[in-house]
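User: Let's play a game. I give you a shape written as tokens, and you guess the letters that built it. Ready? Here's round one.
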């Protein structure tokens, strides 16, 4: 067992939106590591309203990208052969952290992205093969509309900034969840980065966006039922292996997390990977690195 502190920076971490360049459609040829335009020209007007709503919250500091050219050595107290193959993280409490610091909620989400990038680099450096992130739950739609739209803005900008780095470093990006309900621009970007990195095999990041464990099991059951209806399998053939193959984590060689880390101090799974976490070890910490305990299921 090891301790990985995912402390969020204590300074005011606000982001700057640069003046966008006009493009007419999404195309991988337009993507640049330093070009943070997350929208097509058709959607700039719509989302400029969001920027105005967060006018005082999203200025100051730009997002910091981790440098993968120098990997961080495994700490001496850890053993490479005992590192998990698949680690899952529920990054919770960004808004509460921001409020405790007297910052707007949007600042907490930006700080969370910075911590995520730091975590990706550590997992990449330490030999972990898969990192699953609970980015947006099916239950998160009840949040204020302007916060939800800001999160999608942040998702797009963060994804766009990583195209070339993921390709260069062999990082595969996969997205699970019902993406049909996401903004069209975000759907297109997800499709593009999945296609752009699909051949990468050194490290995989799975982003759960509009995802829920119950949703995953239901969609798997529907898929199995359709195969029975189409005569591809028989009712008597259905077992755990059949169902597991239809879960959305079939996108990875290691679908079952060895370790789940949850920040914010909450002691619950919150509808994340319900089937896949059956034998996962839980590690619970607060936003400030305080260890609450670990649970093995």
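Assistant: Ready! My guess for every position:
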């Amino acid at each position: 067992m090891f301790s990985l502190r995912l402390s969020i920076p204590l300074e005011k971490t606000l982001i700057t939106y640069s003046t966008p360049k006009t493009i007419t459609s999404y195309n991988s040829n337009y993507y640049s590591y330093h070009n943070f335009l997350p929208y097509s020209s058709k959607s700039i007007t719509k989302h400029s309203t969001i920027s105005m709503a967060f006018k005082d919250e999203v200025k100051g500091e730009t997002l910091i990208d981790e440098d993968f050219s120098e990997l961080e050595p495994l700490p001496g107290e850890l053993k490479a052969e005992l590192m998990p193959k698949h680690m899952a993280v529920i990054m919770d409490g960004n808004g509460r952290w921001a409020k405790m610091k007297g910052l707007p909620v949007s600042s907490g989400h930006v700080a969370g992205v910075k911590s995520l990038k730091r975590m990706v680099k550590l997992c990449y450096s330490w030999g972990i093969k898969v990192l699953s992130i609970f980015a947006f739950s099916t239950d998160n739609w009840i949040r204020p509309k302007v916060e939800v739209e800001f999160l999608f803005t942040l998702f797009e900008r963060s994804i766009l900034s990583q195209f070339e780095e993921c390709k260069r470093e062999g990082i595969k990006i996969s997205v699970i969840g019902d993406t049909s309900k996401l903004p069209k621009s975000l759907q297109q970007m997800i499709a593009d980065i999945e296609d752009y990195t699909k051949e990468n095999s050194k490290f995989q990041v799975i982003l759960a966006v509009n995802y829920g464990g119950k949703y995953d099991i239901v969609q798997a059951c529907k898929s199995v039922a359709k195969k029975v209806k189409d005569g591809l399998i028989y009712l008597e053939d259905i077992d755990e292996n059949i169902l597991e193959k239809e879960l959305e984590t079939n996108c990875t060689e290691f679908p079952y997390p060895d370790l789940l880390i949850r920040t914010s101090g909450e002691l619950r799974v919150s509808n994340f990977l319900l089937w896949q976490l059956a034998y996962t070890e839980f590690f619970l910490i607060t936003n400030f690195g305080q260890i609450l305990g670990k649970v093995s299921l």
